[in-house]
Specification:
The chain has 251 residues and is of the alpha+beta class. The protein has six helices and nine strands. Strands 1-4-3-2 form a four-stranded antiparallel beta sheet, with no helix packed on it. The N and C termini lie far apart (42 Å).
């Protein structure tokens, strides 16, 4: 896998990497421990840290990074199965020879080696367990907050999954169950590469009440922007969800 913490970029497919150094053991980077086989590489675009660890160790560390405090053991077991399934599926479809998985939300968050007795037990108790559909690994998407109902994958990924359907749930304990952002108009214009924005309105909603598309009126006419594209352009944390309403106050 590749860690992209202070190393901000990810090597593109086909890029030839120059190995600057190798070690096996424990590497401390910015207060975080990384154990296993480690390579520090570079190309014209930047530097990369590649950490090779056994699958079950990887799952343990991903669960540590993805879960909240005080999760029950059975919830940790479920997360371990999901994380393991997602990792193996992504590894099987990745065509980049430099790494199997990234350590960001592009795959799963990975923050090096973390010791937690409950999580270690949950991973050990589910060792090797994965989720399948008709004998094949599923794409085990998961999230921090459901917004009261999960989204239809067609609205996000452009295709349906027979094993993933919208379901209602309660996520009021999540800090993202209610959120607010103040985003300058110039930031939106830059992100969308649209100048002279005069007005933004919601054009349509998905079946689960999320914004599907926005209508942007600007100097050169009107543009229809998918809400998922808006999130990607602004940044996932900047716009945490497509389930929002908005009000304009000046700029």
């Amino acid at each position: 896998m590749i860690w992209a913490g202070i190393f901000r970029s990810i090597p593109e497919e086909g890029n030839k990497l120059e190995v600057m150094g190798k070690l096996k053991g424990d590497l401390l980077v910015d207060g975080t421990h990384y154990e296993g086989k480690i390579e520090v590489c570079k190309d014209k675009a930047g530097m990369y840290l590649i950490n090779e660890v056994p699958l079950e160790e990887y799952v343990k560390n991903v669960v540590s990074a993805e879960v909240g405090m005080n999760w029950a053991l059975e919830a940790l077991k479920a997360q371990a199965v999901i994380a393991r399934t997602y990792a193996l599926y992504q590894k099987s479809t990745n065509r980049n020879p430099n790494y199997d998985l990234t350590s960001t939300v592009l795959d799963q968050v990975y923050k090096g080696s973390v010791e937690d007795a409950m999580i270690s037990s949950a991973v050990a108790d589910t060792r090797g367990e994965v989720l399948t559909y008709k004998g094949k690994l599923i794409e085990a998407f998961y999230h921090s907050t459901c917004g009261g109902e999960t989204e239809d994958p067609r609205e996000v990924f452009g295709k349906s999954y027979p094993y993933l359907k919208p379901v209602k749930s309660d996520c009021e304990l999540s800090p993202y169950s209610m959120w607010e952002r103040k985003i300058p108009l110039r930031e939106i214009a830059k992100a969308l590469d649209i100048s002279g924005i005069k007005e933004i309105s919601i054009q349509s909603y998905t079946s689960t009440g999320r914004v599907r598309a926005l209508k942007v009126r600007h100097d050169k006419g009107v543009s229809i922007v998918k809400a998922t594209d808006m999130r990607k352009a602004l940044g996932w944390k900047r716009l945490p969800s497509t389930k929002f309403t908005f009000t304009r106050k000046g700029n």
